[in-house]
C-alpha cells in the first residue's frame, strides 16, 4: 500500500494566487483498501502558516495503517511542504517514511533566486544528515506542492501537463496524462470526474511500481475522490470518505 497518496505526485504548472481553488484548512481523508481489506487511512491537508516571516501554505499528507494491518506491513508516513503564497513555489519539502522495515528521511530547501536547492538525506547508521547542493530548473515544484498546482489548471482530455519537479536529490521532468471523463459515486453524490495519470520517473511520495490513476472532480476545485495504484505486493484503492473545508456539499 505504498504510494497511498501519490497524490502527491507530480504535476501542475505555475499559477497565480488569485487562481486558488482550495480553501484554507481543507482536509481530505481517504480509506485505503488492499483488496477487500480496509488497510489504512490517509489524509491530505492545506492550511495557512508562516515560513521565515513569509506567508505560506503548509501542505501535508499522512498515511497510517490500521492496527490489524500493522501486523503484516506497518506504515507511518508523513510528507510536508511549505509553499510560498506569493510565488506558489516551495520553500521546503520533507519526507519521513516508515514502511515495514524501510525507513527514509529526506529534506529539500529551495532557493529559487539562485536556482539551487540544498538536499539533505538522513543517514540512519551515522545518525546525521548528508548535505548536497544541486542545481534545479526554473520554477521547480516538490512532489506535494505540484499536486495542488494541477488542481488550478484547465485540464483537457488527451492533453498532458508537464512540470519540473525537484525531490529526492533529482530533477524530474514529469508528465501528467488526462485520460478520460468518468462518473463516480462519491461523498458529494454522483460526480463527473477526470481520470489522470501522473508519470513520475523513480520514487514519488512512496516507493512505487506500476501505474497510478487519480479521479478529480471535473470542476474548478478538482478535488481528488479516488486513487488506484499497483504496488510491489499487490494493489490498493483509496476512496475519499471525509472532507473538511471544501466548497462542495456532502450528500
Task: Describe what is shown at a glance.
It is built from two helices and 14 strands. The protein is mainly beta and 251 residues long.
Description:
With 251 residues, this protein is mostly beta strands. It has two helices and 14 strands, in the order βββαβββββαββββββ. It has one domain (17-240). It has helices at residues 67-70, 145-150; strands spanning 26-34, 37-51, 54-65, 76-84, 90-99, 102-111, 116-123, 128-135, 161-167, 170-186, 189-199, 212-217, 224-231, 234-244. The longest helix is centred in the middle third of the chain and has 6 residues, at 145-150. Mean pLDDT is 87; it is low at 1-19 and 203-208.
Q: What portion of residues belong to β-strands?
A: over 45%
The 3D shape can be described as globular
Radius of gyration: 17 Å
First-residue to last-residue Cα separation: 28 Å
Q: Strand count, sense and closure of the main sheet?
A: 14 strands, antiparallel
By DSSP, the count of extended strands is 14
Number of domains: 1
Portion of residues within helices: under 10%
Determine the number of helices (DSSP H or I, runs of at least 4 residues).
Answer: 2
User: How are the strands ordered across the major sheet?
Assistant: 8-7-6-5-4-3-2-1-14-13-12-11-10-9
The succession of helices and strands, N to C, reads EEEHEEEEEHEEEEEE
Average residue-wise pLDDT: 87
Pick out the low-confidence regions: 1-19, 203-208
Q: Assign the structural class, choosing from mainly alpha, mainly beta, alpha/beta, alpha+beta, or little secondary structure.
A: mainly beta
